[in-house]
Structure formats: C-alpha cells, structure tokens
Amino acid sequence: MIRTIFIYLFILIVGSLFLGSMILFGIPALQESSLVLPALSQTKDEMEGAEAQKALLEKDLQKFRAKLEKLTPSGSYMLVNTSENHFYLYKDKQLIRDGVCSTGKNERLVSAERNYEHVFHTPFGVRTVQRKQTKPVWAKPDWSFIEDGLPIPPAGDASRYESGTLGAYKLEIGDGFMIHGTIYKRMMGMSVTHGCIRLLDDDLEVVYKTMEVGSKVYIY
Amino acid sequence: MKENSAEDFDGLYVKKKKKTGIKIFLILFCLLILSFTAIYFYLTIGAVRDRMNLAQSQAEGSSAVSPSLIGLMKEKAWIESRLKMAAADSIGLSIDLEERIIQMELKGVVIMKTKIRDYSTSGFFKRMDGNVYFTLFGTPLTIQKYESSIEKNPYKVVQAPKIGQEESTSTKKDTVIHENVFWTVKLDREFDLNIQGIDSVMESQSKYKFGKGFEFKRDLKNIMNSFEHILKFIKPVYTPEILISIPENEAKTILRALPRKAYVTIRI
Q1: Fold of the B40-152+174-267 domain
Q2: SS3 A156
Q3: Is A42–B238 a contact, with Cβ atoms under 8 angstroms apart?
C-alpha cells in the first residue's frame, strides 16, 4: 500500500517538475535560440559599388554629426534635474558649476470655497531667460493668498509686494517661473517650491553672471 | 498442509488489478504531460516564427545591405534618428547598447547621461540583420504604454488654506532608498523596453528575480498569458524585449521626466 502511494507520488512529482521546467526554462530558452529563430538578413557578401557607398556614408555621417553637435548651445545654458533637485551650469559646452536647488512640490492646491485650483509644479522642457533683475521684489500671485486663507487684494495693492524673499537676483524664464534665491535655506535639495527654481546665494550669483537673456534652461 | 481457500484467490486478483491501474495511470499521466508540452512548444515556437516573419515582411522592398557597411549604416541611423527626435519639443530617450549609454535628450541637447550597468536582449534582436534593423531602429520609436513600480507623476492634493502644513510635508526628502524602481514601456514596433534600477551588477542578477521584483512578475504574466492561449488552442503573443539595468536614481529620473508618448532611439 505504502509502495503504491510512493509510486503515485513519485510519478506526480517527476511529471510536474518536467512540465514546470519545460514551461519555465526549456521552451522560453528554445524560443530565444538560433534553432528556432531564423536569421533575418538580406545582406550579400560582396556588393558592387560598396566602396563608393562607403565614402558617401562617411560624408553623410560627418554632416549629421556636425548638425547634432550644433544643437548644443555654445554659450551658457543650464540643466535642472527636478527629481534630484540638482542644477548644472554650462559655458562653452563645459560644466562650470553644479549644485543643489529646489524645485516644484508637485502639489494641487484646491479651494472649494473659492472655486480655485492651482498646480505647483516645475514644468519640464526648454525655457529661455527672458529678463534678469537684481534685488527683486516678489509680486505675490493669487495662489499665495488662497494658500494662506487670506482675502485676495486688488492688483497693485501694497500687500502683494514682498522684498528679500527672492534673494539678491532673479532670472525670469517665462509664464511666471523664475530662478531666484531663498530665505528657506534648510529646505534646499527638496521639492518644496511653487514651481520656481531656488538656488543658494553663491550659486545664484554665478548663474546670474553667467546666463544671458536668451540663454536656455533645460528642465527635466 | 493448508489448502488454498477461495478468499486467497480473490486477493491475488485484486493485486493484479491494482498493478494494472498504476500502469494505466502512469501511461496516461506521461502522455498528458508530453502532449501538453508538445502543444505548448508548437504554439510558442509558432508565435516566435510569426513575429520573425512579420519583421521580415516589414523590411521587404528595401535594398540589400552590404555587411561591410552595416557598422556605418547603424551609426548613420542612430544619429539621423536622434536628429529627428530633436525636432520634437519634448524630452526623448536614446539608448546606445553598443557604448552602454542611456541618455535623455531635449532639442538635441543631452540633458542626462548614465552608464548602463547591465543589459540583455531577446534572441530576436540577435538574429536580425540589415534591413530588419533599419526598419526597426532607423527612425525614433514611440512609447505606447507605461507600467512602473513607482508612480510616474505623483501629485498631492492639498486643501486651502494650508497654514502650518508646509513644514510637516516639505521636510520629507524625496528619496528612492528601499524602493524598487523598475518600469516597462511598450514601443510602437511591437517590442518592450524594460528598465530596472540597480546599484551594482550583482544586484541586477538577483534583486528582481524572485518575489516582489519585476522579472518575476513579468515571467509569471508571460506564462499565464501562454497558458491562456494554449488552452484556447491559439498562438500566444511573442514580444521581444530589451532589459536595461541602470542606477536607481537615474531610473527614477528618466521615468518621471519622459512624456507619455516620448520618442525613443535605440542602437544595438
């Protein structure tokens, strides 16, 4: 009786192992082997005019490489990694400075009472420095008052303006987004801003002096 | 001397019957396993052949490629494809398996570059040549669908006013520590690109293999898919794939930065 049970069990285990190993390893391995995969080739060993074609190809390659190379700005430009909150400043295609920064907090501010919604996010893509300014004054947008639960003042009201918050310099990159300094230095390296790019004072000074109006900022 | 009783004879007959039962079970079981394996084999191999035939037919009509020029032509296809990608306004991904480099590009500018720690490709890619290669990789591919272990674009919804909330929420540094970062994308030319975050080559061999990892999940999904098709007697779908292992932070950065329908350029 025990012998019979043992034989049944043995057959079941060996059979299942065989099937399992075929499904898990055998057939997938065979699927990828050259026994099954025919070579997909239309190549010929020797082709007429191969030399002439080679010269033409090399010429084309040279042209394409130069075209691709030209796409990288030769002046100053900046890369901003929002995932790691790190910036890289380039001049003449050389990295001249990199450091910590702070970018958008990826937050959707919702106010049901005021029927208002705003997304705090640093948008990805390429932007251009449109304006540079020293000792900037921050003109607080509506979301700043909504966020703090305060009534929204009319445009031009004195309560909208705050100096010192943006540091010593600002570089406007369009749609209200800026590169500026901060008073919240302990939060550098974190995603905490309303969409702007915050830099430390020393870094900001170098960036301000290096980047021209028209310089590109690549954000990712 | 004891005489044999009728009961003893009956006992012998039952024993013989039992032995025959085992034999029949054994034969049937083995036949069942072998036939199932054979059907599984036939259908899965058929699926691979179909995929190869499809690739071959897609490449038909283009002129033959000289083997001595393949290297140069691949280089040309790679740069041309990147130039086409640069014409778009969004971030694209270029993968150079020859140089083991993965990079993000925006308007032709390399914005992030990292070394590929480890990679593997399906046999399909090893067998293709000349025209099939240029049909597949001659122009940028487009991402069709993402699947990832972490959220692609996490957003938090906050109710206004939020006085006093900023301190507690913002002091949490975004990090990938203890987070398995892996993602897979379906590309428009019927193959998959899998990216996994690893910090050493050793890790790539083991980290995602068993349990919670992506290779395990993918294998399980493929097997279930194959079974489902085989039970219905239809060929399962064979999707060639490229698996790339890169540092975790970069895997996360690329996932977050790429648009939903991003362009991808590949050189193998």
Answers
A1: L,D-transpeptidase catalytic domain-like (2.40.440)
A2: coil
A3: no
φ/ψ region of B194 (left if φ > 0, alpha if ψ in -120 to 50, else beta) reads beta
CA of A26, closest CA in chain B: separation in Å?
9
**Stretch 209-268 of chain B: residues touching chain A, C-beta under 8 Å:** 219, 222-223, 226, 238, 249, 252-253, 256-257, 259
Per DSSP, the three-state class of B179 is: coil
* ipTM score for this prediction: 0.80
Q: Which two tokens stand for residue B60?
A: 């038909």
Residues of B in contact with A8 (CB under 8 A): 22, 25
**Euclidean distance between CA atoms A115 and B208, whole angstroms:** 46
Q: What sign has the CA pseudo-torsion A30, A31, A32, A36?
A: positive
Domain ranges of chain B: 40-152+174-267
User: Taking 70 as the threshold, does the pLDDT of residue B123 lie above it?
Assistant: yes
Candidates B48, B64, B69; nearest CB to A31: B48
Which domains does chain A show, CATH number per domain?
76-219 (2.40.440.10)
A130 dihedral zone (left: phi>0; alpha: psi -120 to 50; beta): alpha
CA proximity to B118, closest of B47, B205, B36: B205
**β-pairing, A161-163 with A169-172?**
unpaired
Helix (H, G, I), strand (E, B) or coil at B67: helix
Q: Nearest Cα to A23, choosing from B105, B41, B6, B126? A: B41
Mean predicted lDDT score pLDDT of chain B? 81
Beta bridge partners of A170: A133, A180
Instruction: Tell me the three state secondary structure of residue A21.
Output: helix
Contacts of A31 in chain B (CB under 8 A): 44-45, 48, 123, 238
3-class secondary structure, B266: strand
What CA–CA distance (Å, rounded) separates B241 from B193? 6
How many Cβ atoms sit within 10 Å of the Cβ of residue B32?
12
Nearest C-alpha neighbor of A97 from the set A195, A208, A215, A213? A208
**What pLDDT tens digit does each residue of chain A (220 aa) get?**
777 778 778 877 887 787 777 776 676 666 666 656 555 554 555 556 777 888 888 999 999 999 999 999 999 999 999 999 999 999 999 999 999 999 999 999 998 888 889 999 999 999 999 999 999 999 999 999 998 889 899 988 999 999 999 999 999 999 999 999 999 999 999 999 999 999 999 999 999 999 999 999 999 9
